[in-house]
Amino acid sequence: MKTGDYNNLQILRFTSVGAYLGDDQDNDVLLPNKYLTDDMQVGDEVKVFLYRDSEDRLVATTEHPLVKPGEFAFLRIKEVNFYGAFADWGLEKDLMIPFKEQHITLNENAYYLTALKYDEATDRLYGTTKVNKLFTPCSDESLIGNVLPILVGDQTDLGVKVIVDQQYLGMVYHSDMPSHLRRGDYTEGYIYNIREDGKVDVRIGKPGYQRIDDNADKLMTILKRLGKINITDKSTPEKVMETVGMSKKVFKQAVGKLYKEKLIELKEDAITWIG
After folding, report:
1. Where do the domains of the chain lie?
2. Contact, 60 vs 30, CB < 8 A?
């Protein structure tokens, strides 16, 4: 049985306090009554998360924690007392963040980027906000162009910090950051650069060539409907945005694709659909 992770265990027996689950090494653990369902039977396999309860007993739950060992999440501090800070991590027992694991003083009801750690000596889980040394420097050039899950972090002068694939520290520059995304959100982004310091540059959304295709399709639809549009690559950005709802850079990329495919004719003061 592995503390701090999901385990597939078999129901051994039912008792007044819950069901006891076991593995193939004759270990067992209690799944309390509150997590049982009417269709559970002896012999069934159940996927559970294991952690220690308020009395330091190993216990199983079918609830899902917001973070697992080696991962990061923005957690809300529910209480700060003599022992440390206690964060809501999605389970009944709050996650303790000892004072020595706090990079700054933590305040109740505020959210902090937190990593979950496991102490083998005590078989206990704990949180830490001292996360800067926990990121893996990225050196894998094969990741460039890949779409990976990201966690949105704090804003800087250049852009927004992100955590890529729960491993790497990255940056989404302001020009590539959708306005609807906020600190703590999960989304996907694609890697387009790996820096010498091991950090990665990320864009939200589809890779460049796919975005060009999408915008070319959008421009093609407009041209099919109207026959022509009275803007060109010399038009002002404001005029382009007003007419086709694109930035001038995106518009020129879309025009270039349609022209290369011989679907449009470029005139001095307009673009005409000929496809």
Report:
1. 6-61, 72-132, 141-204, 208-273
2. yes
